[in-house]
Fold each of these.
Amino acid sequence: MRVNEWLRCFLVAIAVGLGATGCGDDTYCDAGDLSQALADAQPGDAVVVGACTVRGSFTLPAGVQLHGQDRASSRIVAAGGVALRVDATSGQTQVADLSVESDQAGALVVQGGGDARLERIDVVAHRGLGLGAGGLAKLDLVDVGVHGPVTAENADDWPADASDSSVATRGIVLSSVTDAQLERVDVSGFAQVGVLLSKSHTRWTGGGTHDTLGAGLMVVGGDADLVTVELATTLQGARLLPAYAGVFAEGASIESSSLVVRDSSALGLLHLGGTARHVALTASGNGDAAVRAQGMASFELSGAGTELADNQVAALVVMDSSKVTVASAVIRGTKMGKAAVGANGSPEIGDGIQLVRSSEIALQDTTLKDNGRVGVLLEVSGTDVASAGVTFSGVSVNGGSTQLGAIAEGDAGVIAPGSGWDEGIERLGSTADNDAKVTSPLEELGIVGPEYLPAPLAALP
């Protein structure tokens, strides 16, 4: 500790009592001294921030550890530019027990080809990016909170074309990270996207996103494994584009276990190509389809605990895909509504499952109940369900009043129920009688085009 820092701590200690200042032999509360300590540090060294607020912009050298007392009392705050840049070009560089805040450009940026570990930190961004990392061989984020100013209460106040200069737009951006491990990471309050994973390989366990405009999570290329993550309350605000709890694009490969998707203003999950396997997914209260998938090489929704309930428009829509499996699912209470995108001229619908122009489909041990329009709507090319490789086993559809159970359509129109294609489906309630009266094809949804997708930047400041 330098002389002026020692003198400051000594005088404060006299005033408030020894031990109350957060100062010690190796702690820093002065911006100039902290900058110098970081510049002098060598790989393996630790630099410690006291229980204080240090104002300025700082760079952490590769292989050095930067620690605070705890994230409630040790704060780095920048009035302009990035608050903390982490050089992770070699070795393992660590940040722990700090709060990092910035009102311009971004709060915390990690770059380089080495390893970095960020643990027990809070990041607060008022404009631009919260936390970004690019090009790393390995990144660990453990017990990390990243927060911006957007809330459900003020969502309509932010401009539809929100930019980095006006508001915090992106919570976490990971770009080309070879091995990213996220544990108990919570993100909220951003105007474009909560978490953007671009061409990275990520496992995320615990935590999630909430109160974000645009998209809660975007995965562009690469792969992601989501375990007990919650994507909640994605907001539309004044934006013209719909809200998405999760968007997976450019061939992203997605696996999830006990993923929760709830209360999006519009869509839940949107898969655009690639592969997906969701085990024990729960999706509820979304203002549009809970899950949409198109152009998939394979898609699976399975596992005990899988439930899509009380969503609007549709619970599950799979289009132009192959190797589709739905097993051990409960799909119920889909409400009537008009799709925000890909409506295809259709009126209000409320469908449990739509399977459109897809092949190698297996629907197994699945219960569909009280879905507003129809439990299962199947559209195949040609006139033969079997030739599309569609099989049903242990499927029940239940509904009352005018609700339909299971309807199949081909090039020649409606394929009669009871003609063999629906073996393995049990119709309960009014569905058998209602299905027998259907003579005209039902409208299905269209594809979601790229013009309807959010496009946050992956570039780091």
Amino acid sequence: MDKIAELLQTSTIIPIGIYSVYVVNFVLNTNRVLKAIELCKECLILLNALKTKKGYVRSIYMRIYLTMFVGYIFTSDHRSGIECGEKLLVLIREYDMRDAEGFIKQRVAGFHNCQGQSS
């Protein structure tokens, strides 16, 4: 019975996560950055309810964190940008995306520089 409940939960939350990524990107592209970040945080709450970070769920996590990170770049929220960037780096390293990893590291170093910290 637990497998059936887990399957039902996964089959409803994953499509919500996929569609929410599209909605959040639309909101971000229409210059409502703070609202996009807020929606990303709500998406993470839903995904955390799955209690799994395997397969396609991990890809959704990466997209949400990437959208949040871009939002933090636009708002110059350095502290939150550093936290989000570090979580994003962990996910990106698992996919071996070296170009994206370099971009994120560069931006996180910029956030540290703006705060007067060494990266």
Amino acid sequence: MSNSRRLYASTVKEKEPCQGQYQLFLKYCGDNGYITITDRWCRSHASEFDWEWAKLLLSESARESYDAVAAWTIGGGQRGREQSCQ
């Protein structure tokens, strides 16, 4: 069973992302103003987003789960905020 969640542009904006990341998010939202986030969607777009910043959108328990698997799932392919926001 796959977990999914709607992530709204307004929620992302409240967390003060850098402009480049916010514009990238909006690109995928389309007219409905949200993205349905799934495991598959995240894997498909892993190289595009700053996932270290994006984990601020998660609950504390979800961040702990993310941290537990991020090292081997994303590993060295993860871009830092400095790179993705320039």
